[in-house]
Write a structure and sequence with these properties.
Blueprint: E1 2-11, E2 14-24, E3 29-33, H1 40-48, E4 55-60, E5 63-67, E6 70-71, E7 79-82, H2 94-99, H3 107-120, H4 136-149, E8 154-158, H5 166-183, E9 186-191, H6 194-198, E10 203-208, E11 211-216, H7 218-223, H8 228-231
Parallel strand pairs: 3-9, 3-10, 7-8, 8-9
Antiparallel strand pairs: 1-2, 1-4, 4-5, 5-6, 10-11
Helix pairs in contact: 3-4
Bound molecules: adenosine-5'-diphosphate and magnesium ion (MG).
Adenosine-5'-diphosphate is lined by residues 11, 16, 34, 36-42.
Length: 238
């Protein structure tokens, strides 16, 4: 579904991504994990079309989205991204925010679609609230509902839980596991927390210093870790 091949990105003298190749099958939840600064967000931004590679290509369902120095515009990529800080419009109600990308639908269909999404994310009661009037966890659900609204083929999330407290992070992990499977999307999820990733990923992609160190199921990876960083996570328990 997603095919990343030989991707390299340099910023000045620094090679932030070095010859990264990765294939994700349709419907898979893939988590990119690695220490801070290893290039995870840079990789996700390239997939989203917010940045261009120096070398390599990105393709989705056989269509090239990025090649050296070139990138198809983000809104033409059939994907949506959820950011760490949610990026909700402060003056819009939850219902307006979630329905924002649905202007092609008539009022009635849009309302039906938005209410179904609010229900799925368990935020129906908040439809008329502003982002400032709801909690961080609820804001995160709004951001995810908005990203799902246009039914993208690919859902990208960059550290979506890092602004939440520990208790809420643990709850959201469980919720993600159910949610990602129920929507049937291909998901590319970035986190610096491998235990968070392991709690719902089909496949873990371990990055270090701009390169992919290991790819595998959480079980396979923790059973025979190829990186010291993963090996130190002894007694893995999600
Ligand atoms: P991660 O998300 O894994 O924490 P990033 O992809 O954000 O890492 O960053 C990887 C490296 O690339 C960091 O050293 C960062 O400073 C550098 N970097 C990222 N974006 C830019 C940019 N636009 N210009 C210069 N350096 C950048
Ligand atoms: Mg990052």
């Amino acid at each position: 579904m997603l095919e990343i091949s030989g991707l390299t990105r340099r910023f000045g003298p620094q090679t932030v991504l070095n010859d990264v190749s990765l294939t994700i099958a349709p419907g898979q939840v893939a988590c990119i994990v690695g220490p801070s600064g290893c290039g995870k967000s840079t990789l996700l931004r390239l997939v989203a079309g917010l940045d261009r590679p120096d070398l390599g290509t990105i393709a989705v369902n056989g269509t090239t989205l990025s090649s050296p120095g070139w990138a198809l515009e983000p809104h033409k990529r059939q994907l949506n991204m959820v950011f760490q800080d949610y990026a909700l419009w402060p003056h819009m109600s939850v219902e307006k925010i979630v329905g924002y990308g649905l202007d092609r639908l008539d009022t009635e269909s849009r309302k039906t679609r938005v209410l179904a999404l609010l229900d799925q994310l368990r935020i129906s009661a908040l439809a008329d609230r502003l982002p400032s009037q709801i909690s961080g966890g609820q804001q995160q659900r709004v951001a995810i509902a908005r990203a799902l609204a246009t039914d993208p083929a690919l859902l990208l999330l960059d550290e979506p839980l890092s602004n939440l407290d520990v208790q809420l992070r643990l709850e959201m992990r469980k919720e993600f596991s159910t949610l990602f499977r129920s929507v049937g999307k291909t998901v590319l999820y970035v986190t610096h927390d491998p235990l968070e990733a392991a709690s719902f990923a089909d496949v873990l992609v371990v990055m270090n210093k701009g390169e992919i160190e290991q790819v595998g199921t959480p079980e396979a990876l923790f059973a025979s870790p190829r990186s010291a960083w993963i090996a130190t996570l002894a007694g893995y328990d999600t």
